[in-house]
Amino acid sequence: xxxxxxxxxxxxxxxxxxxxxxxxxxxxxxxxxxxxxxxxxxxxxxxxxxxxxxxxxxxxxxxxxxxxxxxxxxxxxxxxxxxxxxxxxxxxxxxxxxxxxxxxxxxxxxxxxxxxxxxxxxxxxxxxxxxxxxxxxxxxxxxxxxxxxxxxxxxxxxxxxxxxxxxxxxxxxxxxxxxxxxxxxxxxxxxxxxxxxxxxxxxxxxxxxxxxxxxxxxxxxxxxxxxxxxxxxxxxxxxxxxxxxxxxxxxxxxxxxxxxxxxxxxxxxxxxxxxxxxxxxxxxxxxxxxxxxx
Amino acid sequence: xxxxxxxxxxxxxxxxxxxxxxxxxxxxxxxxxxxxxxxxxxxxxxxxxxxxxxxxxxxxxxxxxxxxxxxxxxxxxxxxxxxxxxxxxxxxxxxxxxxxxxxxxxxxxxxxxxxxxxxxxxxxxxxxxxxxxxxxxxxxxxxxxxxxxxxxxxxxxxxxxxxxxxxxxxxxxxxxxxxxxxxxxxxxxxxxxxxxxxxxxxxxxxxxxxxxxxxxxxxxxxxxxxxxxxxxxxxxxxxxxxxxxxxxxxxxxxxxxxxxxxxxxxxxxxxxxxxxxxxxxxxxxxxxxxxxxxxxxxxxxxxxxxxxxxxxxxxxxxxxxxxxxxxxxxxxxxxxxxxxxxxxxxxxxxxxxxxxxxxxxxxxxxxxxxxxxxxxxxxxxxxxxxxxxxxxxxxxxxxxxxxxx
Lengths: 294, 405
What we know:
The structure holds 2 protein chains of 2 kinds. Chain A has 11 helices and 4 strands, in the order ββααααββααααααα. By secondary structure, chain A is mainly alpha-helical. In chain A, the strands form 2 sheets. Chain A has a two-stranded antiparallel sheet with strand order 1-2. Chain A has a two-stranded antiparallel ribbon with strand order 3-4. By secondary structure, chain B is an alpha/beta fold. Chain B has 2 domains: 202 residues, Response regulator (Rossmann fold, 3-Layer(aba) Sandwich); 128 residues, Rossmann fold. Chain B has a 5-stranded parallel sheet with strand order 2-1-3-4-5, with helices on both faces. Chain B is globular, with a radius of gyration of 21 Å. About 2% of the residues of chain B have low confidence. Chains A and B meet through helix 1, helix 9 and helix 10 of A and strand 7, helix 7, helix 8 and helix 9 of B.
């Protein structure tokens, strides 16, 4: 059976690949959306923090023998801690100023982090082994799906949905959302708002680092890996609506699928199709698909 | 005020210069190494090429006792033709650069070749692959060193078709280099009785090849030809390994693979790959000696074919400058074609009328992990292609400088 001239089997394979890429977009844009939605910071160093996650995993494996499973927990904690440090020492001073200062600061940090790593490690990328339990493929009939990529989809869905649930449906999430709308009032109720803000930034950064650890076995662990993906992730967040968590998740997976389809029908455009969509969405609905006009 | 100072300085420099240098512009031979210092080709070229150029200058002056004053500068073109063109124009117009070396990324190489010809300067290219530099885009001010797509296609491509790989599917980087490599390899495949069952153009650069590899798998071609380089190639190979492509009976043909690529892939993923290069550090005592010195200056990283090409081409360039007693681009280019070459890295060769440097090429196979004695001990020599067969014959060239009408 053929759909638009492509055998349906091949098409399903491509859609599945698109879903896997969408998992990375969703994980990363979730972190960005959390940081922007709750803290109004445009975190341009998100890509560099993703790269840091991959590198910490790589270094801890090769220098300390820490395996993938431990890395999944430790690396986000370590990189999240650096995020907390950045927030406490630098970002805090910029809250009263225009959004742009936060953008400039995080952008500068990204350049520094990337430059240092590129100087140390070159740009070719380092190999990171797929954990043994995930080596091999599932034979789905229409394609071979590497077990590790199936794991990526699973983790991404789990983390995304859990985060969404916590922020939108629990008391802690309610405090967070209230604190961004009216920090003084919430503080008056006895809630430590600055600490919540710091920890939220740390959490967003930890999400980026988690995406980095998950990406290490698939893509080369390279200092440029963050720079390549961050632009696309920003487009995803803009299309989804800068403040909407669910919007970021759905758009992440959705745009991954669209990109996957483009690769089948017109591969030369697959790098740009997300931006074309972003342009259209911004013209028709500037707040994004799921965003609310503030 | 500044102008006066500069003219004064130039006059003073001329006063100190010997009569042999009276025709060297500003008394200094300035070489600009333009390449990718920060992106996917920076390990193959990058700072290493600048180091190679400086080593070449030192070695030449020491060996020949030449009185030339030579300066080497470097810059990043970020794989973008417009950025590269701007740097080249600035170098030629205001910073008195006489020759631009290296320049990977064929789209940039083609732009620099044109600018160099327009301004009467010289471009000695070691980094770009496209055979068009000595084909339809050739000019009297451009010399193409190290390698090109024709050599790669006829080295790797021919060997693979002859050993049974007769159906091909191409993954092509969607820019000048990928198109040239695909075109030249397709010609070789068809000439040797093979068939091309499909091709897909991948955006340059790309991180994730899974979708394209899936299409290659569906085509059932025996050989998946990777018409890409650097990070694109290593990602393709890594992901092909992950999707079990080779287990399903298909083989990968790395049409342009450099030593640093194999290093970052690890032998586990790269073993069995066939590739063609014109330089390998372990070929003979001279290449080994060069590599030891180069690695010491380059943080332990061994030289790639491109970096070796920069070293070799700078030495021949300086020889030609001394022989022609000028650094005028067009005259030195002609002199480089006149003088035979002999250097420790590429052996004996020559530069042809179309600007193509000729030297032997080597077909290598990547060792299995058990066969390697240490880092960078990755290749075993399968066969040597003599210099007069390795590159496109002049009779087939569409270069206007040699075309017979």
